[in-house]
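Run log // design_07
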Protein backbone atom coordinates (compact mmCIF):
# COMPACT_ATOMS: atom_id res chain seq x y z
CA UNK A 1 0.00 0.00 0.00
CA UNK A 2 2.24 2.83 -1.20
CA UNK A 3 0.05 5.79 -0.15
CA UNK A 4 -0.32 5.94 3.61
CA UNK A 5 -2.13 9.24 3.58
CA UNK A 6 -5.20 9.93 1.42
CA UNK A 7 -4.39 13.66 1.64
CA UNK A 8 -0.93 13.41 0.06
CA UNK A 9 0.72 12.21 -3.16
CA UNK A 10 3.66 10.94 -1.07
CA UNK A 11 4.58 7.43 -2.22
CA UNK A 12 6.65 5.37 0.21
CA UNK A 13 8.33 3.36 -2.56
CA UNK A 14 10.05 6.61 -3.64
CA UNK A 15 12.91 8.58 -2.03
CA UNK A 16 11.84 10.22 1.25
CA UNK A 17 12.85 13.69 2.41
CA UNK A 18 15.05 13.85 5.48
CA UNK A 19 15.69 17.60 5.50
CA UNK A 20 15.31 20.72 3.40
CA UNK A 21 16.91 24.10 3.02
CA UNK A 22 14.52 26.91 2.12
CA UNK A 23 15.18 30.43 0.92
CA UNK A 24 12.28 32.85 0.46
CA UNK A 25 12.17 36.46 -0.65
CA UNK A 26 9.05 38.09 0.76
CA UNK A 27 7.41 40.64 -1.56
CA UNK A 28 4.43 42.46 -0.06
CA UNK A 29 3.62 44.35 -3.28
CA UNK A 30 3.00 41.24 -5.37
CA UNK A 31 2.09 39.02 -2.36
CA UNK A 32 4.50 36.41 -3.61
CA UNK A 33 7.31 34.42 -1.99
CA UNK A 34 10.13 33.80 -4.50
CA UNK A 35 11.79 30.66 -3.27
CA UNK A 36 14.41 28.00 -3.68
CA UNK A 37 14.10 24.76 -1.79
CA UNK A 38 16.62 21.94 -1.69
CA UNK A 39 15.23 18.63 -0.46
CA UNK A 40 17.73 16.06 0.82
CA UNK A 41 16.74 12.40 0.76
CA UNK A 42 17.21 9.89 3.58
CA UNK A 43 19.47 7.93 1.18
CA UNK A 44 20.67 8.22 -2.43
CA UNK A 45 17.84 7.56 -4.90
CA UNK A 46 17.61 4.30 -6.83
CA UNK A 47 16.38 6.39 -9.77
CA UNK A 48 12.76 6.89 -10.85
CA UNK A 49 9.79 9.08 -10.06
CA UNK A 50 9.37 11.40 -7.09
CA UNK A 51 5.89 12.78 -6.39
CA UNK A 52 5.64 15.98 -4.36
CA UNK A 53 2.61 17.87 -3.10
CA UNK A 54 2.12 21.43 -4.34
CA UNK A 55 -0.76 23.88 -4.48
CA UNK A 56 -0.78 26.96 -6.67
CA UNK A 57 3.01 27.05 -7.02
CA UNK A 58 4.71 28.42 -10.14
CA UNK A 59 7.61 26.07 -10.83
CA UNK A 60 10.55 27.78 -12.57
CA UNK A 61 13.19 25.08 -12.51
CA UNK A 62 13.88 21.63 -11.07
CA UNK A 63 17.45 20.35 -10.80
CA UNK A 64 19.58 17.83 -8.95
CA UNK A 65 22.22 18.71 -6.35
CA UNK A 66 24.80 19.36 -9.10
CA UNK A 67 22.58 21.83 -10.94
CA UNK A 68 21.54 19.41 -13.71
CA UNK A 69 17.97 20.16 -14.87
CA UNK A 70 15.48 17.37 -14.14
CA UNK A 71 12.40 16.47 -16.18
CA UNK A 72 9.18 17.14 -14.31
CA UNK A 73 5.43 17.39 -14.79
CA UNK A 74 3.06 19.57 -12.81
CA UNK A 75 -0.24 17.69 -12.92
CA UNK A 76 -3.73 19.23 -13.11
CA UNK A 77 -5.08 20.33 -9.72
CA UNK A 78 -7.16 18.02 -7.57
CA UNK A 79 -9.64 20.19 -5.62
CA UNK A 80 -8.49 18.81 -2.25
CA UNK A 81 -4.91 17.61 -2.75
CA UNK A 82 -3.61 20.32 -5.07
CA UNK A 83 -1.14 19.57 -7.87
CA UNK A 84 1.19 16.58 -8.01
CA UNK A 85 4.67 17.60 -9.06
CA UNK A 86 6.21 14.49 -10.64
CA UNK A 87 10.00 14.67 -10.95
CA UNK A 88 12.22 12.09 -12.60
CA UNK A 89 15.14 11.53 -10.27
CA UNK A 90 18.36 9.96 -11.56
CA UNK A 91 19.95 7.01 -9.74
CA UNK A 92 22.34 8.17 -7.01
CA UNK A 93 20.71 11.60 -6.58
CA UNK A 94 20.96 12.80 -2.97
CA UNK A 95 18.15 15.31 -3.39
CA UNK A 96 16.42 17.82 -5.66
CA UNK A 97 16.34 21.61 -5.88
CA UNK A 98 13.24 23.54 -6.95
CA UNK A 99 13.07 27.20 -7.88
CA UNK A 100 9.48 28.43 -7.61
CA UNK A 101 7.03 31.16 -6.60
CA UNK A 102 3.98 30.99 -4.36
CA UNK A 103 0.59 32.23 -5.53
CA UNK A 104 -0.90 35.44 -4.05
CA UNK A 105 -3.82 33.14 -3.14
CA UNK A 106 -1.61 30.51 -1.42
CA UNK A 107 -3.99 28.66 0.91
CA UNK A 108 -1.62 28.74 3.90
CA UNK A 109 -0.76 32.42 3.68
CA UNK A 110 -2.55 35.54 4.68
CA UNK A 111 -1.12 38.84 3.47
CA UNK A 112 -2.46 41.73 5.52
CA UNK A 113 -2.52 45.35 4.42
CA UNK A 114 -1.25 47.85 7.04
CA UNK A 115 -4.88 48.88 7.88
CA UNK A 116 -5.54 45.28 8.98
CA UNK A 117 -2.88 45.43 11.69
CA UNK A 118 -2.96 47.12 15.09
CA UNK A 119 -0.16 49.52 14.21
CA UNK A 120 -1.76 50.42 10.82
CA UNK A 121 1.64 51.28 9.33
CA UNK A 122 3.25 48.03 8.24
CA UNK A 123 1.95 45.01 6.35
CA UNK A 124 1.93 41.54 7.90
CA UNK A 125 2.24 38.01 6.57
CA UNK A 126 1.60 34.73 8.37
CA UNK A 127 1.15 31.05 7.58
CA UNK A 128 -1.22 28.35 8.81
CA UNK A 129 -0.12 24.99 7.37
CA UNK A 130 -2.29 22.47 9.22
CA UNK A 131 -4.05 20.49 7.85
CA UNK A 132 -2.65 20.32 4.28
CA UNK A 133 -1.47 23.80 3.34
CA UNK A 134 2.32 23.50 3.70
CA UNK A 135 2.24 22.47 0.04
CA UNK A 136 1.07 25.97 -0.94
CA UNK A 137 4.34 27.35 0.51
CA UNK A 138 6.90 24.60 -0.13
CA UNK A 139 6.76 21.72 -2.64
CA UNK A 140 7.16 18.77 -0.29
CA UNK A 141 6.03 15.36 0.90
CA UNK A 142 3.21 16.96 2.82
CA UNK A 143 2.21 14.12 5.10
CA UNK A 144 2.81 13.89 8.86
CA UNK A 145 4.58 10.54 8.71
CA UNK A 146 7.53 12.06 6.79
CA UNK A 147 9.42 14.00 9.46
CA UNK A 148 11.90 16.58 8.25
CA UNK A 149 14.42 18.99 9.71
CA UNK A 150 15.08 22.24 7.91
CA UNK A 151 17.11 25.39 7.62
CA UNK A 152 15.57 28.59 6.27
CA UNK A 153 16.37 32.13 5.24
CA UNK A 154 13.65 34.77 5.09
CA UNK A 155 14.55 37.83 3.03
CA UNK A 156 12.23 40.57 4.38
CA UNK A 157 11.95 44.38 4.27
CA UNK A 158 14.37 45.72 6.89
CA UNK A 159 11.51 47.55 8.62
CA UNK A 160 9.99 44.19 9.61
CA UNK A 161 10.90 41.14 11.68
CA UNK A 162 10.66 37.62 10.36
CA UNK A 163 9.95 34.82 12.83
CA UNK A 164 9.63 31.08 12.30
CA UNK A 165 8.74 28.01 14.36
CA UNK A 166 12.45 27.18 14.53
CA UNK A 167 15.66 28.33 16.23
CA UNK A 168 16.69 31.83 15.21
CA UNK A 169 20.27 32.02 13.91
CA UNK A 170 20.37 35.79 13.59
CA UNK A 171 19.57 38.73 11.36
CA UNK A 172 21.70 40.53 8.82
CA UNK A 173 20.66 43.87 7.30
CA UNK A 174 21.46 44.81 3.73
CA UNK A 175 21.23 48.19 2.00
CA UNK A 176 19.73 51.41 3.27
CA UNK A 177 16.64 53.50 2.66
CA UNK A 178 13.41 52.27 1.12
CA UNK A 179 14.79 49.13 -0.44
CA UNK A 180 16.72 47.97 2.66
CA UNK A 181 16.31 44.26 3.36
CA UNK A 182 17.07 41.91 6.23
CA UNK A 183 18.01 38.26 6.04
CA UNK A 184 16.65 36.26 8.98
CA UNK A 185 18.14 32.78 9.35
CA UNK A 186 16.62 29.79 11.09
CA UNK A 187 17.27 26.13 11.75
CA UNK A 188 14.85 23.49 12.93
CA UNK A 189 16.98 20.70 14.40
CA UNK A 190 14.06 18.56 15.60
CA UNK A 191 12.36 16.68 12.76
CA UNK A 192 8.79 17.86 12.22
CA UNK A 193 5.78 16.87 10.16
CA UNK A 194 5.32 19.49 7.40
CA UNK A 195 2.09 20.88 8.89
CA UNK A 196 4.23 22.36 11.69
CA UNK A 197 6.20 24.55 9.28
CA UNK A 198 5.36 28.16 10.17
CA UNK A 199 6.42 31.74 9.62
CA UNK A 200 5.28 35.29 10.23
CA UNK A 201 6.62 38.64 9.04
CA UNK A 202 5.51 41.92 10.55
CA UNK A 203 6.15 44.74 12.96
CA UNK A 204 6.54 42.55 16.03
CA UNK A 205 8.54 42.93 19.23
CA UNK A 206 9.25 40.51 22.05
CA UNK A 207 9.34 40.27 25.84
CA UNK A 208 11.01 37.54 27.85
CA UNK A 209 8.67 35.62 30.18
CA UNK A 210 11.19 33.10 31.51
CA UNK A 211 14.52 31.65 30.52
CA UNK A 212 13.06 29.57 27.74
CA UNK A 213 9.84 31.49 26.97
CA UNK A 214 9.33 34.78 25.18
CA UNK A 215 6.21 36.37 23.74
CA UNK A 216 6.07 38.22 20.41
CA UNK A 217 3.32 40.68 19.44
CA UNK A 218 2.74 43.97 17.70
CA UNK A 219 4.12 46.79 19.92
CA UNK A 220 0.62 48.00 20.90
CA UNK A 221 -0.24 44.58 22.34
CA UNK A 222 3.02 43.39 23.85
CA UNK A 223 2.25 44.54 27.43
CA UNK A 224 -1.16 42.92 27.48
CA UNK A 225 0.27 39.74 25.94
CA UNK A 226 3.13 39.53 28.44
CA UNK A 227 0.62 39.83 31.30
CA UNK A 228 -1.96 37.38 29.95
CA UNK A 229 0.60 34.68 29.13
CA UNK A 230 2.96 35.16 32.09
CA UNK A 231 1.79 31.71 33.26
CA UNK A 232 3.49 29.91 30.36
CA UNK A 233 6.44 28.63 32.40
CA UNK A 234 4.09 27.27 35.09
CA UNK A 235 2.06 25.47 32.43
CA UNK A 236 5.23 23.97 31.00
CA UNK A 237 6.32 22.68 34.41
CA UNK A 238 3.00 20.93 35.00
CA UNK A 239 3.15 19.41 31.54
CA UNK A 240 6.70 18.19 32.16
CA UNK A 241 5.57 16.47 35.35
CA UNK A 242 2.86 14.75 33.40
CA UNK A 243 4.75 13.90 30.20
CA UNK A 244 8.48 14.15 30.85
CA UNK A 245 11.06 16.72 29.72
CA UNK A 246 10.20 19.39 27.15
CA UNK A 247 12.12 18.37 24.03
CA UNK A 248 11.97 21.52 21.90
CA UNK A 249 14.36 23.77 23.86
CA UNK A 250 12.59 27.11 23.47
CA UNK A 251 8.90 27.74 23.97
CA UNK A 252 8.02 31.13 22.48
CA UNK A 253 4.57 32.54 21.73
CA UNK A 254 3.35 34.77 18.92
CA UNK A 255 0.16 36.80 19.28
CA UNK A 256 -1.37 36.82 15.82
CA UNK A 257 -3.46 39.42 14.01
CA UNK A 258 -7.22 39.06 14.69
CA UNK A 259 -7.79 37.24 11.41
CA UNK A 260 -5.84 34.20 12.62
CA UNK A 261 -8.29 31.36 11.84
CA UNK A 262 -7.71 29.30 15.03
CA UNK A 263 -7.50 29.88 18.76
CA UNK A 264 -4.01 28.55 18.77
CA UNK A 265 -1.64 26.54 16.60
CA UNK A 266 1.04 24.39 18.19
CA UNK A 267 3.90 25.43 15.90
CA UNK A 268 6.98 24.01 17.65
CA UNK A 269 9.16 26.51 19.51
CA UNK A 270 6.71 29.27 18.53
CA UNK A 271 3.05 28.74 19.38
CA UNK A 272 0.65 30.95 17.41
CA UNK A 273 -2.22 32.41 19.50
CA UNK A 274 -5.29 34.44 18.58
CA UNK A 275 -5.39 37.94 20.12
CA UNK A 276 -8.94 37.14 21.28
CA UNK A 277 -7.31 35.33 24.24
CA UNK A 278 -6.26 38.71 25.66
CA UNK A 279 -9.30 38.96 27.94
CA UNK A 280 -7.34 40.80 30.61
CA UNK A 281 -8.09 38.19 33.29
CA UNK A 282 -6.26 35.07 32.07
CA UNK A 283 -9.64 33.34 31.78
CA UNK A 284 -8.80 31.89 28.36
CA UNK A 285 -5.30 30.52 29.03
CA UNK A 286 -6.56 26.95 28.68
CA UNK A 287 -5.87 27.49 24.97
CA UNK A 288 -2.23 28.18 25.83
CA UNK A 289 -2.17 25.01 27.97
CA UNK A 290 -3.64 23.13 25.03
CA UNK A 291 -1.03 24.30 22.51
CA UNK A 292 1.83 23.63 24.95
CA UNK A 293 0.53 20.13 25.60
CA UNK A 294 0.79 19.46 21.86
CA UNK A 295 4.59 19.65 22.31
CA UNK A 296 4.16 16.06 23.50
CA UNK A 297 0.87 14.85 22.04
CA UNK A 298 0.86 15.81 18.37
CA UNK A 299 4.35 17.22 17.88
CA UNK A 300 6.35 14.43 19.53
CA UNK A 301 3.85 11.68 18.70
CA UNK A 302 1.99 12.62 15.53
CA UNK A 303 -1.00 10.91 13.95
CA UNK A 304 0.15 9.48 10.59
CA UNK A 305 -2.65 11.27 8.79
CA UNK A 306 -5.88 13.21 9.41
CA UNK A 307 -7.86 9.95 9.80
CA UNK A 308 -6.26 9.50 13.24
CA UNK A 309 -6.51 13.17 14.18
CA UNK A 310 -8.07 12.21 17.54
CA UNK A 311 -4.65 10.93 18.63
CA UNK A 312 -3.43 14.53 18.37
CA UNK A 313 -6.43 16.40 19.69
CA UNK A 314 -8.11 13.99 22.13
CA UNK A 315 -4.83 13.41 23.99
CA UNK A 316 -4.11 17.13 23.96
CA UNK A 317 -7.50 18.07 25.41
CA UNK A 318 -6.88 15.45 28.11
CA UNK A 319 -3.49 17.03 28.91
CA UNK A 320 -4.89 20.57 28.70
CA UNK A 321 -7.48 19.74 31.40
CA UNK A 322 -4.85 18.09 33.60
CA UNK A 323 -2.88 21.36 33.44
CA UNK A 324 -5.97 23.46 34.20
CA UNK A 325 -6.84 21.20 37.16
CA UNK A 326 -3.31 21.26 38.55
CA UNK A 327 -3.13 25.07 38.44
CA UNK A 328 -6.71 26.11 39.08
CA UNK A 329 -8.45 23.17 40.72
CA UNK A 330 -10.66 20.28 39.70
CA UNK A 331 -13.81 22.37 39.64
CA UNK A 332 -12.60 24.43 36.68
CA UNK A 333 -11.41 21.28 34.92
CA UNK A 334 -14.90 19.83 35.31
CA UNK A 335 -16.50 23.01 33.96
CA UNK A 336 -14.27 22.93 30.90
CA UNK A 337 -15.08 19.27 30.38
CA UNK A 338 -18.79 20.05 30.64
CA UNK A 339 -18.46 22.82 28.08
CA UNK A 340 -16.68 20.36 25.84
CA UNK A 341 -19.57 17.96 26.33
CA UNK A 342 -22.06 20.61 25.13
CA UNK A 343 -19.91 21.27 22.09
CA UNK A 344 -19.72 17.57 21.39
CA UNK A 345 -23.53 17.24 21.43
CA UNK A 346 -23.75 20.18 19.02
CA UNK A 347 -21.19 18.49 16.75
CA UNK A 348 -23.19 15.25 16.75
CA UNK A 349 -26.29 17.23 15.77
CA UNK A 350 -24.41 18.96 12.94
CA UNK A 351 -23.13 15.61 11.66
CA UNK A 352 -26.58 13.97 11.82
CA UNK A 353 -26.40 13.18 8.11
CA UNK A 354 -22.79 11.94 8.29
CA UNK A 355 -22.62 9.81 11.44
CA UNK A 356 -19.42 8.17 10.12
CA UNK A 357 -17.64 11.48 10.76
CA UNK A 358 -18.44 11.05 14.48
CA UNK A 359 -16.25 7.93 14.73
CA UNK A 360 -12.86 8.56 16.35
CA UNK A 361 -11.17 6.77 13.46
CA UNK A 362 -12.39 8.38 10.23
CA UNK A 363 -12.04 7.63 6.52
CA UNK A 364 -11.16 10.78 4.68
CA UNK A 365 -10.34 9.81 1.08
CA UNK A 366 -12.06 12.44 -1.05
CA UNK A 367 -12.84 14.64 1.96
CA UNK A 368 -11.21 17.99 2.72
CA UNK A 369 -9.90 17.69 6.30
CA UNK A 370 -10.65 21.37 6.99
CA UNK A 371 -14.31 20.73 6.19
CA UNK A 372 -14.43 17.55 8.31
CA UNK A 373 -13.04 19.48 11.30
CA UNK A 374 -15.28 19.36 14.39
CA UNK A 375 -15.28 18.94 18.17
CA UNK A 376 -15.54 15.14 17.81
CA UNK A 377 -11.83 14.17 17.80
CA UNK A 378 -11.29 16.64 20.65
CA UNK A 379 -14.13 15.86 23.02
CA UNK A 380 -15.03 12.29 22.14
CA UNK A 381 -11.30 11.53 22.18
CA UNK A 382 -11.07 13.13 25.62
CA UNK A 383 -14.01 11.10 26.95
CA UNK A 384 -12.54 7.88 25.58
CA UNK A 385 -9.26 8.53 27.39
CA UNK A 386 -11.14 9.47 30.58
CA UNK A 387 -13.05 6.18 30.31
CA UNK A 388 -9.77 4.28 30.10
CA UNK A 389 -8.41 6.26 33.04
CA UNK A 390 -11.54 5.58 35.10
CA UNK A 391 -11.37 1.85 34.37
CA UNK A 392 -7.73 1.37 35.27
CA UNK A 393 -6.98 4.16 37.75
CA UNK A 394 -4.94 7.32 37.36
CA UNK A 395 -1.58 5.77 38.19
CA UNK A 396 -1.75 2.98 35.66
CA UNK A 397 -3.26 5.24 33.05
CA UNK A 398 -0.37 7.67 33.46
CA UNK A 399 2.03 4.76 32.95
CA UNK A 400 0.18 3.99 29.71
CA UNK A 401 0.57 7.61 28.59
CA UNK A 402 4.29 7.51 29.35
CA UNK A 403 4.65 4.28 27.35
CA UNK A 404 2.74 5.83 24.43
CA UNK A 405 5.04 8.85 24.32
CA UNK A 406 8.15 6.74 24.88
CA UNK A 407 7.32 4.26 22.13
CA UNK A 408 6.46 6.78 19.41
CA UNK A 409 8.73 9.73 20.30
CA UNK A 410 9.48 11.75 17.14
CA UNK A 411 7.40 9.25 15.23
CA UNK A 412 3.97 8.87 13.70
CA UNK A 413 1.21 6.61 14.98
CA UNK A 414 -2.17 5.22 13.99
CA UNK A 415 -5.23 4.20 15.98
CA UNK A 416 -4.08 0.58 15.61
CA UNK A 417 -0.75 1.49 17.20
CA UNK A 418 -2.65 2.84 20.20
CA UNK A 419 -4.83 -0.26 20.38
CA UNK A 420 -1.73 -2.49 20.28
CA UNK A 421 0.02 -0.51 23.00
CA UNK A 422 -2.96 -0.56 25.36
CA UNK A 423 -3.52 -4.26 24.74
CA UNK A 424 0.08 -5.10 25.55
CA UNK A 425 0.21 -2.97 28.74
CA UNK A 426 -3.32 -3.52 30.00
CA UNK A 427 -4.68 -6.72 28.46
CA UNK A 428 -8.48 -6.75 28.36
CA UNK A 429 -8.89 -3.04 29.16
CA UNK A 430 -10.07 -2.11 25.66
CA UNK A 431 -12.81 -4.73 25.77
CA UNK A 432 -13.89 -3.62 29.21
CA UNK A 433 -14.53 -0.05 28.03
CA UNK A 434 -16.04 -1.17 24.73
CA UNK A 435 -13.25 0.46 22.72
CA UNK A 436 -14.50 -0.61 19.31
CA UNK A 437 -17.71 1.40 19.77
CA UNK A 438 -15.61 4.43 20.67
CA UNK A 439 -13.20 4.05 17.78
CA UNK A 440 -15.40 2.80 14.98
CA UNK A 441 -18.93 3.66 16.06
CA UNK A 442 -21.00 6.87 15.89
CA UNK A 443 -21.88 9.17 18.78
CA UNK A 444 -21.11 8.13 22.35
CA UNK A 445 -21.28 4.64 23.85
CA UNK A 446 -23.77 4.37 26.72
CA UNK A 447 -21.49 4.10 29.74
CA UNK A 448 -19.15 6.94 29.08
CA UNK A 449 -17.36 9.02 31.69
CA UNK A 450 -19.26 12.17 32.66
CA UNK A 451 -17.69 15.19 34.32
CA UNK A 452 -19.30 16.01 37.69
CA UNK A 453 -19.20 19.01 39.98
CA UNK A 454 -21.64 20.90 42.19
CA UNK A 455 -21.26 24.21 40.40
CA UNK A 456 -21.67 22.46 37.10
CA UNK A 457 -24.91 20.77 38.20
CA UNK A 458 -26.29 24.10 39.43
CA UNK A 459 -25.61 25.86 36.11
CA UNK A 460 -27.06 22.99 34.09
CA UNK A 461 -30.20 22.86 36.18
CA UNK A 462 -30.84 26.56 35.67
CA UNK A 463 -30.13 26.45 31.95
CA UNK A 464 -32.30 23.43 31.36
CA UNK A 465 -35.33 25.49 32.47
CA UNK A 466 -34.28 28.48 30.41
CA UNK A 467 -34.24 30.43 33.69
CA UNK A 468 -32.49 33.79 34.09
CA UNK A 469 -30.08 33.49 37.03
CA UNK A 470 -30.54 35.68 40.10
CA UNK A 471 -27.89 38.39 40.41
CA UNK A 472 -26.62 37.06 43.79
CA UNK A 473 -25.91 33.78 42.04
CA UNK A 474 -24.55 34.94 38.69
CA UNK A 475 -22.29 37.64 40.11
CA UNK A 476 -20.20 34.79 41.58
CA UNK A 477 -20.01 32.94 38.24
CA UNK A 478 -16.67 32.43 36.58
CA UNK A 479 -16.39 33.04 32.81
CA UNK A 480 -16.56 29.25 32.32
CA UNK A 481 -19.88 29.07 34.21
CA UNK A 482 -21.35 31.86 32.11
CA UNK A 483 -20.30 30.18 28.97
CA UNK A 484 -21.67 26.83 30.04
CA UNK A 485 -24.98 28.42 31.00
CA UNK A 486 -25.33 30.15 27.63
CA UNK A 487 -24.33 27.04 25.67
CA UNK A 488 -26.69 24.81 27.63
CA UNK A 489 -29.74 27.09 27.24
CA UNK A 490 -32.34 25.51 24.95
CA UNK A 491 -32.68 27.56 21.76
CA UNK A 492 -34.64 29.59 20.75
CA UNK A 493 -35.49 31.52 23.92
CA UNK A 494 -38.36 34.05 24.20
CA UNK A 495 -37.31 37.67 23.62
CA UNK A 496 -38.16 38.53 27.27
CA UNK A 497 -35.47 36.11 28.42
CA UNK A 498 -32.92 37.57 26.01
CA UNK A 499 -33.79 41.10 27.04
CA UNK A 500 -33.61 40.27 30.76
CA UNK A 501 -30.24 38.58 30.34
CA UNK A 502 -28.77 41.44 28.39
CA UNK A 503 -30.10 44.31 30.49
CA UNK A 504 -29.13 42.62 33.77
CA UNK A 505 -25.71 41.30 32.75
CA UNK A 506 -24.61 43.46 29.80
CA UNK A 507 -23.66 40.38 27.80
CA UNK A 508 -23.52 42.26 24.49
CA UNK A 509 -20.62 44.30 25.80
CA UNK A 510 -18.73 41.31 27.24
CA UNK A 511 -14.95 41.51 26.72
CA UNK A 512 -14.58 37.74 26.92
CA UNK A 513 -15.07 36.55 23.33
CA UNK A 514 -16.15 33.07 24.42
CA UNK A 515 -18.99 34.49 26.53
CA UNK A 516 -19.81 37.11 23.90
CA UNK A 517 -20.11 34.65 21.04
CA UNK A 518 -22.09 32.09 23.07
CA UNK A 519 -24.50 34.89 23.95
CA UNK A 520 -24.75 36.23 20.40
CA UNK A 521 -25.49 32.75 19.09
CA UNK A 522 -28.26 32.28 21.66
CA UNK A 523 -29.68 35.70 20.77
CA UNK A 524 -29.48 35.17 16.99
CA UNK A 525 -31.08 31.75 17.21
CA UNK A 526 -33.84 33.41 19.22
CA UNK A 527 -34.32 36.08 16.55
CA UNK A 528 -33.40 38.79 19.06
CA UNK A 529 -32.52 41.64 16.69
CA UNK A 530 -30.94 44.17 19.12
CA UNK A 531 -27.70 42.15 19.07
CA UNK A 532 -27.26 42.31 15.29
CA UNK A 533 -25.01 45.40 15.21
CA UNK A 534 -22.65 43.65 17.65
CA UNK A 535 -22.74 40.48 15.53
CA UNK A 536 -21.73 42.54 12.50
CA UNK A 537 -18.91 44.10 14.49
CA UNK A 538 -17.56 40.70 15.56
CA UNK A 539 -17.79 39.20 12.07
CA UNK A 540 -15.98 42.22 10.69
CA UNK A 541 -13.17 42.25 13.22
CA UNK A 542 -12.18 38.66 13.90
CA UNK A 543 -11.35 35.68 11.71
CA UNK A 544 -11.23 32.86 14.27
CA UNK A 545 -13.37 30.09 12.78
CA UNK A 546 -14.58 28.94 16.19
CA UNK A 547 -16.54 32.22 16.27
CA UNK A 548 -17.29 32.75 12.59
CA UNK A 549 -18.89 29.34 12.08
CA UNK A 550 -21.51 29.41 14.89
CA UNK A 551 -22.33 33.08 14.26
CA UNK A 552 -22.89 32.64 10.53
CA UNK A 553 -24.70 29.36 11.19
CA UNK A 554 -27.11 31.00 13.62
CA UNK A 555 -27.85 33.81 11.15
CA UNK A 556 -28.38 31.32 8.32
CA UNK A 557 -30.73 29.25 10.43
CA UNK A 558 -33.46 31.92 10.52
CA UNK A 559 -35.25 33.14 7.44
CA UNK A 560 -35.13 36.80 8.52
CA UNK A 561 -31.33 36.91 8.92
CA UNK A 562 -30.26 34.62 6.05
CA UNK A 563 -29.69 37.47 3.58
CA UNK A 564 -27.75 39.37 6.23
CA UNK A 565 -25.39 36.40 6.66
CA UNK A 566 -24.67 36.32 2.93
CA UNK A 567 -24.23 40.07 2.78
CA UNK A 568 -21.84 40.13 5.76
CA UNK A 569 -19.77 37.30 4.33
CA UNK A 570 -19.53 39.05 0.96
CA UNK A 571 -18.40 42.22 2.72
CA UNK A 572 -15.86 40.68 5.10
CA UNK A 573 -14.55 37.58 3.37
CA UNK A 574 -11.59 39.51 1.96
CA UNK A 575 -10.35 40.08 5.52
CA UNK A 576 -10.47 36.38 6.43
CA UNK A 577 -7.62 33.86 6.03
CA UNK A 578 -7.99 31.71 2.86
CA UNK A 579 -8.88 28.66 5.01
CA UNK A 580 -11.69 30.55 6.73
CA UNK A 581 -12.92 31.88 3.36
CA UNK A 582 -13.14 28.31 2.13
CA UNK A 583 -14.75 26.83 5.25
CA UNK A 584 -17.29 29.62 5.84
CA UNK A 585 -17.93 29.92 2.09
CA UNK A 586 -18.92 26.25 2.14
CA UNK A 587 -21.62 27.02 4.72
CA UNK A 588 -23.28 29.65 2.53
CA UNK A 589 -24.68 26.93 0.24
N1 LIG B 1 -3.95 22.09 15.96
C1 LIG B 1 -5.14 22.77 16.35
C2 LIG B 1 -5.61 23.74 15.31
C3 LIG B 1 -5.91 23.10 13.97
C4 LIG B 1 -6.58 21.90 13.87
C5 LIG B 1 -5.51 23.74 12.82
C6 LIG B 1 -6.82 21.34 12.62
C7 LIG B 1 -5.76 23.17 11.59
C8 LIG B 1 -6.42 21.98 11.48
C9 LIG B 1 -4.96 23.50 17.69
O1 LIG B 1 -4.15 22.82 18.58
C10 LIG B 1 -6.30 23.60 18.35
O2 LIG B 1 -6.88 22.58 18.59
N2 LIG B 1 -6.75 24.81 18.66
C11 LIG B 1 -7.98 25.01 19.37
C12 LIG B 1 -7.68 25.19 20.84
C13 LIG B 1 -8.74 24.68 21.79
C14 LIG B 1 -9.13 23.25 21.57
C15 LIG B 1 -8.28 24.86 23.22
C16 LIG B 1 -8.64 26.24 18.79
O3 LIG B 1 -8.11 26.80 17.83
O4 LIG B 1 -9.69 26.65 19.26
ZN1 LIG C 1 -5.09 21.09 19.35
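design_07 sequence
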Amino acid sequence: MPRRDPQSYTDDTQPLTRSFDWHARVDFDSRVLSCTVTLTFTEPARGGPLDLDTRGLGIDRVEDATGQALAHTLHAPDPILGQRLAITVPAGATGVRIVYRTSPEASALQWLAPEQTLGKEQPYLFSQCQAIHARSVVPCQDTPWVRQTYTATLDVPATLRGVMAAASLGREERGTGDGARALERFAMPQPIPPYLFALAVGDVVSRDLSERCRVWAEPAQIEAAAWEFAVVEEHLRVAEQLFGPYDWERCDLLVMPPSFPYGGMENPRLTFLTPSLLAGDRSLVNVLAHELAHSWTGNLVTSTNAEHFWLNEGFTVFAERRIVEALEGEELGALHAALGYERLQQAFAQHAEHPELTHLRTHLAGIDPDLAFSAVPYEKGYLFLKSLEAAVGKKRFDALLAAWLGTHRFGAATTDDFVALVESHEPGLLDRVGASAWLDGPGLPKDHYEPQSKRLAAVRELASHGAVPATELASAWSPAEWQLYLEAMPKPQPHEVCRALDTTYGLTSSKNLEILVSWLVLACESGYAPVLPRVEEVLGSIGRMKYLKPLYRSLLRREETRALARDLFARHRGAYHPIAQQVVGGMMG
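Residues 130-131, 262-266, 286-287, 290-291, 294, 313, 373, 378, 546 surround BES (ligand 1) (CB under 6 Å).
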